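<tokenise_the_fold>
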Amino acid sequence: MNMLQLFEKKKQGLALSQAEIDYFVEGYTAGSIPDYQASSLLMAIRLLGMTDDETFYLTKAMIESGDVIDLSSIEGFKIDKHSTGGVGDKVTLIVTPIIASLGIPVAKFSGKGLGITGGTIDKLESIEGLKTELSSQEFIDNVNQHKIAVAGQTGNLVPADKKLYALRDVTGTVDSIPLIAASIMSKKIASGADGIVLDVKCGSGAFMKTEQDAQRLADTMTAIGEKLGRKVVAHISDMDNPLGKMIGNKLEVVEAYALLNGRMEETHEDLLDECVVIASFMYQVAAGVDEAEATPAVKRVLADGSAVAKFEEFIVAQGGVIADIVQKDTAYKAAVTASTAGTVETINALLIGEASVSLGAGRVTKESALDYDAGIQLIAKKGDPIASGDTIAYLYSNHPIDEETVNKVQKAYTIA
């Protein structure tokens, strides 16, 4: 067996066997298959697709390329969630303490952001002292004691995905449904949780631009999870508009904390609604209850303070300083004003995401240094009436803010 045979088979639109996919994943992870051959196969997959069986074989081979975390010493049904990425998506910071306060163990491994997609680990690391690099025992002890732990992925968790994703990122093969599904589900399965809720984003600020593609991705990931013995639920949510009012690492932590504290004037109903839906799905999967029981339970722990207390407990348990969860002054601040009067019809999430990266809140490359305090505060949201000259957003950064970034945020607003 060699890579030329795999190329020829895929070029003819034929499905690769499990043995052939195992050969590719094992060889590329070990370094015996060079980047130029791997990228050729990835491009063939991007153009010609994969069958459901091929996608499953690829996911399984990627899982088996490294460690699989054993969470059996954690009592109860372990639940995890994953978002395909969006702008202002701080849902994990809110739903994990909600579920933990309901007595369900939440064992979550998260990643760092790249480009316009913010990473949960970056957001948590914006909190003074907070530790996201936990040993396996620390992670398990935290979940058993506090019902919650969120940590960065371990060094040998799905090494095949680390190599393949880095190659996809520079070869124009990121936007392939089979490759996205295998990447996400290999990490989720290897992370050891019993159940997974998938938040599949759809719109201008997401990988999946259409609802049809989002549904295909959701169905593919759900099928993979079920074949591998996990309970999986997928939910499709809007990412044409940014979620909530804050975009940026520390800003999003501040907004999440405000929502958990019930300070709705500092956040927005769209974020609350999304968090209630995702938390309800997580509770349904873990506790085996229906929506009629799950949704009121989620709202109850938000209202009675249990969820915010669990959030504070979680932050302190991982070394974080609660008093540091405040918006910090930045060296530069710029106001964005409306050029016309009317009602905000939409806010282009892609443009807002790009602007936040320009301010220093996101990475251009994996080596980029983050400005944790940089970001965007949306003053006007979809549906809000505004007058010409009103401030619709504020930009924050510790380096000078150029006119192009200000104009990009203004352009993101469609005012009808």
Summary: Residues 3-63 form a domain with the Transferase, Pyrimidine Nucleoside Phosphorylase; Chain A, domain 3 fold (CATH 1.20.970.10).
